[in-house]
Design brief:
This protein is α+β, with helices and mostly antiparallel strands and about 130 residues long. It has a single domain (about 10-20, about 25-125), classed as Vaccinia Virus protein VP39 (Rossmann fold, 3-Layer(aba) Sandwich), CATH 3.40.50.150. About 25% of the residues lie in helices and about 30% in strands. It has helices spanning about 10-25, 40-50, 85-95; strands at about 30-35, 55-65, 75, 80-85, 100-105, 120-125. The strands form 2 sheets. It has a 4-stranded mixed β-sheet with strand order 1-2-6-5, covered by helices on one side. Strands 3-4 form a two-stranded antiparallel ribbon.
Length: about 130
C-alpha cells in the first residue's frame, strides 16, 4: 500500500541524515558510492571521503560513480538540491581528501540522443 503522506525535509535535516548514514563504516576492501554524493556539499563530500580511508583494508579502494558536468563549472539543481560536478572538481576534492586516482573510466552505452550527463567511475586509494 502506498501512503499519501508527503514528507518535507529541510536542507539541514537531509544533511544530518547523510552524515549519520556515513558515520559508521565497516572495515572493507571497497567503499562504493553511486549517484549519491551530488547531494553533499564539497566540504561534506571531502569529510565523507576522509572517513572512508580508515575503513579500508590494506590496498582497498574507494569507488565513486557519478554524473559529470561537461560545462566549465559545476551545475546546481535547485529542484533536488544536488550538484553535478566537473571532472576537474572531483579531482580537486579527491586530492583534498588525501586520495589518488588509480583508475578512471567513462561509462559506455548511454545513447547520446537521450541528452544525459556522461557518467564517470573513479577508483581511489589513499596517497
Amino acid at each position: 500500500m502506498v501512503s499519501n503522506t508527503t514528507y518535507i525535509y529541510s536542507d539541514m535535516e537531509v544533511r544530518l541524515f547523510f552524515m549519520q548514514m556515513f558515520q559508521k563504516l565497516v572495515l572493507t576492501s571497497t567503499q562504493n558510492s553511486q549517484w549519491c554524493v551530488g547531494h553533499l556539499t564539497d566540504a561534506d563530500f571531502v569529510a565523507y571521503l576522509k572517513r572512508c580511508i580508515p575503513a579500508l583494508q590494506p590496498h582497498g579502494f574507494i569507488a565513486i560513480k557519478e554524473n559529470i558536468a561537461t560545462t566549465l563549472d559545476d551545475i546546481y539543481d535547485p529542484e533536488d538540491s544536488s550538484v553535478t560536478r566537473t571532472d576537474k572538481k572531483f579531482c580537486a576534492l579527491f586530492e583534498q581528501a588525501g586520495l589518488k586516482i588509480v583508475k578512471t573510466e567513462l561509462q559506455k552505452g548511454f545513447p547520446a540522443s537521450l541528452g544525459l550527463f556522461p557518467v564517470r567511475m573513479y577508483a581511489l586509494q589513499p596517497v
